[in-house]
Amino acid sequence: MKYISTRGQAPEQSFCDILLGGLAPDGGLYLPKNYPRVSRADLERWRKLSYPELALEILSLFIDDIPVADLKNLCDKTWRADVYSHVRPGQDARQITPLTWLEEGKLGLLELSNGPTLAFKDMAMQLLGNLFEYELRRRGEHINILGATSGDTGSAAEYAMRGKAGIKVFMLSPHGKMSDFQRAQMYSLQDPNIYNLAVTGMFDDAQDVVKAVFADAAFKARYRIGAVNSINWARVLAQIVYYFQGYFLATKSNDERVAFCVPTGNFGNICAGHIARMMGLPVEKLILATNENDVLDEFFRSGGYRPRGAAETRVTSSPSMDISKASNFERFVFDLVGRDAAKIRALWAEVESGQGWNLSGTEYYARLPDYAFISGKSSHADRLATIREIRERTQILIDTHTADGMFVALELRHLLPPEIPLIVLETAQPAKFAATIAQATGQTPPLPADLANLESLPQRVSIIPAEVAAVKEFIAANAD
């Protein structure tokens, strides 16, 4: 399996080469040269597998430069019940992503946040940490991870990488823009290989700095800079697995179809669903849900993509989705325009100039229905009402981002055939956003016992300006 850049001006690479590299040298994102196709026989066989067994089958389609025995060990090490132990009462942690029916056979919640940081980012980040450690040991090398987070990616990355040999992590986050629990998860880590940098700005400012550092080929090479954000293909690859698992849990036969509703800001989570569908998973619709930062919803409704600057990006009660420049969107648009790299270069030149573009009326936009996307958005009032309604109706408490997804799912479910199960992807546990949950329900959500004292721990963080030079200087002073 070879990987190509969406911008078409970088050499083809193997999986392990792009694993450590992040962005392609031409500024694009890596994708497989072709998506592998899944047969009916594959689905029949996979339906009976455990989660790590299913992961091995899917990852093996995309990774041919790691021996199968080693890949099996990595899957077994990553997706263990003791790692994903924060399940709801009565659920089986061995499923890794249990399915909770809110309406039996009709409306379900796929639990993706049972890992160590209570967010779906653990599903992929735990694999990434193990892959990095494996490949660095195999090559006898070290790496300095640079990433940006709007809330959950940072803690998931740090918990996956803490204490691992040959790895240092430099994680940028927007100063004062995350929940208290999110800050505590990251900043309380005292591991010497973890560095938290709170930048004065929004997440998009932090993400822009990361992209600028990656674009400096000489600096990137000198300091062995690697990526854990969802620009790293391995993150998206790991997320494909739970779409197949969710399908198997929601259906009894492979003659059935399902719909997934995915709250998203950076397009990474739903990009994995798009690829699963391209592989042949029987998906009726992919429903994209945003919060007030609705740049993605705007595209699917109008054909226009206009990333916002920090001044136009709203600070909301679902902060991990306070994103107005969706990094992974380029991967989907690459498929939409027929994998025309020259077209992608032209479109993203518009994005990088701050203009944006509109495909309405073009042959590309006419193809959009072929990809089964529909979209909607949610507001703070919608989140509160949805959290309250689901709690009153089912006794289940959902977090603010999952509430964005649930609101849009309920709003758009009339567009689905009545026999199609609708699965909402849970993105975090409510304890991470206690203040908003209390506002919605009048009750503070309980914390897992092993995290109960997290916010009282001492915190270690450096506050710096959202400037490329400042981040480079910090890395140079602390990198291996």
Structural overview:
The chain has 480 residues and is of the alpha/beta class. The protein is 42% helix and 15% strand. It is built from 19 helices and 15 strands. The chain has helices at residues 15-21, 40-46, 51-62, 68-78, 121-139, 152-161, 180-187, 203-215, 217-222, 233-250, 268-279, 295-302, 329-336, 341-352, 363-367, 380-394, 400-412, 434-441, 468-478, and strands at 3-5, 30-32, 99-103, 107-110, 143-148, 167-174, 194-200, 225-227, 258-263, 283-290, 304-305, 357-358, 373-377, 422-425, 462-465. The strands form four sheets. It has a six-stranded mixed sheet, sandwiched between helices. Strands 8-5-6-7-15 form a five-stranded parallel sheet, with helices on both faces. A hairpin with a 3-residue loop joins strand 3 and strand 4. Helix 5 (121-139) crosses helix 10 and helix 10 (233-250) packs across helix 11. The radius of gyration is 21 Å and the shape is globular. The chain starts with a strand and ends with a helix. The mean pLDDT is 94.
Quickly describe the structure.
By secondary structure, the chain is an alpha/beta fold.
Q: Average pLDDT value?
A: 94
| Overall radius of gyration | 21 Å
Q: Write down the overall geometry.
A: globular
Beginning-to-end CA distance, first to last residue:
32 Å
Residue windows where pLDDT falls under 50 for at least 5 positions: none
Overall helicity: 40-55%
> In percent, how much strand structure appears in the residues?
5-15%
In DSSP terms (H or I, runs of 4 or more residues), the helix count works out at 19
Main pleated-sheet profile: 6 strands, mixed
How many β strands by DSSP?
A: 15
Structural class based on helices, strands and sheet pairing: alpha/beta
Strand order of the largest sheet: 3-4-14-9-10-13
> In terms of quaternary structure, what is this?
single chain
